[in-house]
Each structure stands twice: as C-alpha cells, then as structure tokens.
Amino acid sequence: MGPGSDRADDPRAASQKPAPITGSPIAATGLVAWHGDLMARLDRLGWLRDLSDRLAAVLVPARERHQDNLAVELLHGGRWIGHPLHPALSDLPIGLWAGVMVLDVMDRDSTPGRGMDAAGILSAAGILAAGATAVTGLADWTVSDEQDRRVGLFHGLINTVALGLQGASLGTRMAGHRSTARALGAASLAVTAAAGYLGGHLVFTKGVMVNRVAWSVGPRRWTRALQDADLPDDSPIAVEAEGRQIMLYRQGGSLYAIDNVCGHAGGLLSRGTVADLTVTCPLHGARFALADGGVGRGPANQPQPVLPTRIRNGWIEVRGSQPAPRRPAHERK
User: Fold this and answer.
1) Within the chain, how many helices (H) and strands (E) appear?
2) What angle is formed at CA 98 by the lines to CA 92 and CA 99, rounded to 5 degrees?
3) How far apart are CA 217 and CA 208, in angstroms?
C-alpha cells in the first residue's frame, strides 16, 4: 500500500501517530454547544421555576377536571386532526406579521394618514391568530413535564412580549405614526423568531408532542413474552420482547398486547387503570382501546400500536407489525 493510505489495516498508517487537530474555530468558540448551554441556563432561573410551579398548580388540576370535555381535547388537536393543533396555528401569526414587514418595505407613501391600511389588516389578523395559538399552546403546556414545562413557559412569555409589541405597532399605525409602527412590528417579528427557536427545541430536541412509538415495529418473529400461568385475569403486566416494552392483559380468556409506552409522552400504560378494555395512561389521562389501540380520549392523537398474541407450549408469544420475510424454500432446512 502506498503512502497516505486511508485503510485502517495499513501497517504503516497504524504505526503512525495521528496528527494533532488544529483548533477548529467552531469548536473553539463553542458554536456547536451554545443552544444546550442556553437551555440549561433557562432551566436554572429561579423565578421561572417558581412561576411554572405556581401556574401548573392551578392549570393542571383544572385540565384534569375537564379532560372529558370535547373542547379541551380539541385544543390538543385530538384524534380527529391526527396531530397537535398548536404547531399548525403558530405558522399563521408568523406568516401574517412577515407580510406586514414586506408591505412596509414596499410602501412609498410619503404622507401616511390615520386608519387601517393593508399592512394593518395583516397585523390585526396576526394578532387574532396569535390569540388562538396561545390558547392551544397553553393546553399543550398543561400536559408537559419538568424542564420541558419550564422552557415551554419561557417560550410562551416571549410570544406574549411579541404579541404586545405587535399590538402597539397596530395602535401607532392607526394613529398615523407609521415609522414607529414599522419599528415595533420589526421588533415583534424578531421576538417571535426567538420564541419559535425555543418551540423548535421542544419539538426536535426534546420530542415534545411527538409520537413516542412511531418506529415500534418488532419483534420480527413470534417471541416468548411471559409464561401463560403468570398472567392473571384483569391485571395488566409489563413485559419486554426483543427490547420492546409491551403491556399484556387478559379478560374472559382473551389476550391483549399493546405497546406499553404511551405515544403521547412516554408514560407506562401498565401503571395505569383498565376499565371496559380501555387503558388510561397514568401521566396525562389519554385512553386507548386494548383491542385496536384506538384513542378514546386525548391528549394523545395517534392510535397505540397493538401486537398479535398466541399461546404455545405454556408461553404467551407476541409478534410485531412487521414479521421477518420468509426465506425461499431451498434456503430453509
């Protein structure tokens, strides 16, 4: 092998010491880690923790008292929409307020008057959309936990500041002070972008409101999960098969197997209650039918995966939704 080989088994390359890495500007300045440091600093804010606890003490019990109300479930998006409503609504004020800036840049009127212009109409529409977005976001906030709840609260506070700036911008615009209105509108959009960054962190980094079992497909073959004699009637049991957490339940001679990790926020269904062949998640009260995983009540919005079951040689066996393909006959012994 000639000099400079990239093969790991090259003796000459293996005997050479790796050249020291000259400091990368990105690594040296911490540009790849600042977001993690920022979230850690936010989580250490004492006033934010205190405010989060105070609000949760009031709002979470209120949601739990009314969680059977259809309107409360719709605020989360519910089984009818199929995903959370808040992220979809959040695009509206951002888009409308961005349109305000575009119209302001294109405006060439040297003597603006009082009243509502096209940019003002978009600003007002964005304010209305922001109100609806805030309500749905608050509903989602009540079913979050720990650090996610605190970051989510800060996200909401920043959005409130942006809403206030946009309201002030609309007021000064209608009064005829267009230059001030444009400055306040630009500031509002900048603050909205900062709040959007925190929202992106919650979804893409922390997985808030993301289906926790979207990739659960195994085991690929029939796999022993529990001895048949160890599963009593009307008592949920948590088992594991090839790394997948499963809840087993038996009633009237019928076996049921459902993914034990709640798709909404990762609660263990085996620690919840079962009534009328419906299991209730102990974290936020989502309900799933054991027969087909259908959502009976939010905040979950996707069915819970169920697994086929059978009893062989005294064992309860389960199989995932994607069994391994059969080999050609000439390859089987």
Assistant:
1) 10, 10
2) 90
3) 21
* Amino acid letter, residue 200: G
What is the spatial distance between Cα 231 and Cα 223, in angstroms, rounded to a whole number?
16
CA distances from 75 to 18, 84, 298, 310 (A): 57, 8, 10, 39
309-320 residue pLDDT tens: 999 999 999 999
State whether the Cα torsion 224-305-209-72 is positive or negative: negative
pLDDT tens digits along 7-48: 444 444 444 554 554 555 555 456 778 888 889 899 899 999
d(CA 152, CA 198): 8
Number of other residues whose CB lies within 10 A of the CB of residue 330: 5
pTM over 0.85: no
Q: Is the pLDDT of residue 268 over 70?
A: yes
Assigned token pair, 323 = 């069994």
Contact 158, 187 (CB under 8 A): no
Q: Is 4 left (phi over 0), alpha (psi -120 to 50) or beta?
A: left
Write the Ramachandran bin of 262: left for phi over 0, alpha for psi from -120 to 50, otherwise beta.
beta
**Tokens representing 118?**
């096209």
Q: Which of 299, 304, 303 is CA-nearest to residue 136? A: 299
